[in-house]
Amino acid sequence: MPKILVIEDEAAIRRVLIKILSEENDKYEVDEAEDGLAGIEKIKKEDFDLILCDIKMPKMDGVEVLEAVKKIKPEIPIVMIYGHGDLDTAVNTMRLGAFDYISKPPDLNRLLNTVRNALDRKELVVENKILKKKVSKKYEMIGASDAISQIKDIIDKVAPTDARVLITGPNGTGKELVAHWLHEKSERVKGPMIEVNCAAIPSELIESELFGHVKGAFTSAVKDRAGKFEAANGGTIFLDEIGDMSLSAQAKVLRALQESRIQRVGSDKDIKVDVRIIAATNKNLKKEIESGKFREDLYHRLAVILINVPALNDRRDDIPLLINHFANKISEEQGTAKKSFSAKAIKLLQEYDWTGNIRELRNVVERLIILGSTEVSETDVKLFASK
Known about the structure:
With 387 residues, the chain is α/β, with parallel strands linked by helices. It has three domains: 3-135, Response regulator (Rossmann fold); 139-310, P-loop containing nucleotide triphosphate hydrolases (Rossmann fold), CATH 3.40.50.300; 313-384, Helicase, Ruva Protein, domain 3 (Orthogonal Bundle), CATH 1.10.8. It is built from 16 helices and 14 strands. The strands form four sheets. A five-stranded parallel sheet has the order 2-1-3-4-5, sandwiched between helices. Strands 7-8-11-6-12 form a five-stranded parallel sheet. The termini are far apart. Residues 141-370 form the Sigma-54 factor interaction domain. InterPro entries: AAA+_ATPase (IPR003593), AAA_lid_NorR (IPR058031), CheY-like_superfamily (IPR011006), P-loop_NTPase (IPR027417), Sig_transdc_resp-reg_receiver (IPR001789), Sigma_54_int (IPR002078), Sigma_54_int_dom_ATP-bd_2 (IPR025943). This is Sigma-54 dependent transcriptional regulator. GO terms for molecular function: ATP binding.
């Protein structure tokens, strides 16, 4: 049953609101507070699904209550109640984060519709938070080695800034996890995180993919299309395998970095974009610069912060943690009981040459869970994880 708090200093209005809400098919549990200070004390101690709050009150007015609640429990929707002459203030509270406002005396249908809509919004916010936690878990960084601890420290320092980051390391080491954590710990977390695999897009289409195009720009351009930079506006764009990007696309990315503007293919109109760029590559870009395949000026623009993700062979101490993590995840995905790994099996896996890095380790763990004994043994590893 949704719980609603009514904060109103006029006893008569408070009684009317409580009566309407309490009698609404027994749907709502209603509590009350006679002023803003008393309301805030209740909000600190209890959980509410919705707050109805008067604007003009002694001790602490409705605007102050709204600002305080947004700091303490920002997910709770607040509907402001205004009297004669307070309409301008009520409208302004929407800019401060109020869900809606209703007038005194409250209209029955308007009140109940507003309450239902606010509670639906609260449910949606909670669902989004749960989904976000799942996303965060998906991109969890597993490891306690010095190398991984250093990367986590760098992320904590760099993420809140808009500094551009270049992530390097072999394929399968988890460069995309670093990019996602940089975004999720940043001030741009409410904005989009757009991923572009530069190696997977044909060179003749990369510019259209990144910057969009206008109708008629090329044979298959039958209508205007926004690119990834526009889609990432207000958030982060992750350019994976940037070492495979064509020189002409590199020049346009450089301009976007310098001027925060792009042009769609076939257009001369500038479009302003507010995007943080995180790039990754498995190539040695300095060697690519020497061979004329990568622009040096772009490299220096991208590599404000450099993060190198080590190969799994260089962080073998993390292998037991990774095995346990993958075993849990795979059993959860397949709906089967979790299998444990014997100490000898783990030791043997630590000694393997992991050329495919973490991606290869996950595949091997999954194979052993499917084919191995109830407790995966050293023999299972020799049988099913052989190179």
